[in-house]
Amino acid sequence: MIRFACLLVLLSLAPLVLVALRTTGSNAIVFSFVGAPLLAAGVLVYGFQRWREGAFAPSSRQEERSSR
C-alpha cells in the first residue's frame, strides 16, 4: 500500500512539471483536476496505511507518564 501511495504522489508530479514548463491555463486546469486529487489520494492512502500499522498509537512510555 505504501508503494501505491508513492506511485500516486509521483503521478501527481507529472502535471506539475507540465505547469512548470508551460504555464498555460489548460495545464493549470490539468494540475488542479488531476494532479491535486492524485496527491491528496496518495497522502490519504499513506496515512491510512501508517494508521493500520499502529504508527499513531500511543507508545508505552507515554502511557506510563499519563498514569502518574
Keywords, please?
elongated; single chain; 68 residues; 3 helices; mainly alpha
Q: What does this entry look like structurally?
A:
- With 68 residues, this protein is an all-alpha fold.
- The chain has one domain.
- The protein is 82% helix and 0% strand.
- The protein contains three helices and no strands.
- Helix 1 (2-21) runs antiparallel to helix 2.
- The protein is elongated.
- The termini are far apart.
- The mean pLDDT is 87.
Question: How would you summarize the topology of this molecule?
Answer:
Blueprint: H1 2-21, H2 25-52, H3 60-67
Helix pairs in contact: 1-2
Broad structural category: mainly alpha
Oligomer designation:
single chain
Instruction: Return the domain count.
Output: 1
Mean pLDDT: 87
Task: Specify the overall morphology.
Answer: elongated
The helix tally amounts to 3
Concise account of the structure shown:
82% of the residues lie in helices and 0% in strands. The chain has 68 residues and is an all-alpha fold. It has one domain.
